[in-house]
Amino acid sequence: MAKQALILIDIQNDYFPQGKWPLDGVETAADKAAQVLQAFREAGDAVIHVRHEFTSEDAPFFTPESKGAHLHPKVLNEGNEPVVLKHFVNAFRETNLRTLLEKRSITELVVVGSMSHMCVDAVVRAAADLGYTVTVIHDACATLDLEFNGQVIPAAQVHAAYMAALAFGYANVVSADEYVQARATA
Question: For residue 139, which of 99, 116, 161, 167 sits 20 to 30 Å off, Cα-Cα?
Answer without folding.
Answer: 99
